[in-house]
Specification:
This protein is an alpha+beta fold. The protein folds into two domains: about 5-110 and about 185-200, 2-Layer Sandwich (Glycoprotein, Type 4 Pilin), CATH 3.30.700; about 110-185, Hypothetical protein ph0010, domain 2 (Dna Ligase, domain 1, 2-Layer Sandwich), CATH 3.30.1490.150. The protein has helices spanning about 5-25, 30-35, 70-85, 95-100, 120-125, 145-150, 155-165; strands at about 45-55, 60-65, 100-110, 110-115, 130-135, 140-145, 180-185, 185-190, 195-200. It has a five-stranded antiparallel sheet with strand order 2-1-3-8-9, with helices on one face. Strand 1 and strand 2 (about 60-65) form a beta hairpin. Helix 1 (about 5-25) packs across helix 3 (about 70-85). The protein is globular, with a radius of gyration of 17 Å.
């Protein structure tokens, strides 16, 4: 994963907010207006956009692409729209509410398989540095690195939680036929709605 400069992170966060606002103003708006503004982010990369209430930090939406299936700029814009309107855990964001939300963009590294014994898997996961993704048949789940930090989880609790997110028994990460991955993120976030964008340092 190529690390971005703060200025580039600011561009992506602003584009994410603009994509949401454009969709709120007109659901049939042409998203290519936003795509064009960040078309120079053309390297395929996984990305997630997280929306949270200010100042409570309560989650309002989080959607993204775990793998590099499209250019980074498009991934961020599409993730922002999905986080605002298509996260099944929440009702769609309203126009008035947008001014109360923090926009956060997470850029994902490549997925690194976690293999070996139960002990090997536990040792492989570093809280604060790693996010986790699990795949088992039609089921999959992903948790960003920040989730484990916020919840105060250890490695085993984090592995249990990502299985729960996928809708499979929490101990399935121990099985050999379950595909388990870790990844790192580079995170850019507004300090306040429409405010200064900062990079969130990871362990």
């Amino acid at each position: 994963m190529k690390r971005l400069e703060l200025k580039e992170g600011e561009e992506l966060v602003h584009a994410a907010r603009n994509a949401i606002e454009l969709t709120l103003r007109s659901p049939i708006a042409n998203k290519h207006i936003v795509y064009e503004s960040i078309k120079h982010f053309d390297e395929p990369c996984g990305a997630f956009v997280t929306l949270s209430h200010y100042p409570t930090a309560a989650l309002r939406g989080c959607v993204g692409f775990p793998r590099p299936v499209m250019p980074l700029g498009k991934a961020v814009a599409d993730s922002a729209i999905s986080a605002a309107f298509d996260d099944p855990r929440f009702v769609p964001v309203s126009f008035n509410e947008l001014s109360e939300l923090i926009v956060e963009v997470s850029i994902l590294s490549d997925m690194v398989p976690i293999t070996g014994s139960e002990k090997d898997k536990l040792k492989s996961v570093k809280i604060g540095r790693d996010g986790l993704m699990v795949e088992y048949g039609i089921y999959s789940g992903l948790l960003l690195p920040v989730v484990a930090v916020e919840e105060g989880w250890n490695a085993e609790q984090f592995l249990n939680a990502v299985c729960e997110k996928a809708g499979i028994p929490i101990t399935y990460w121990k099985q050999k036929n379950v595909r388990l991955y870790k990844f790192n993120t580079q995170v850019f976030k507004e300090e306040a709605p429409q405010g200064k964008v900062v990079e969130i340092k990871q362990n």
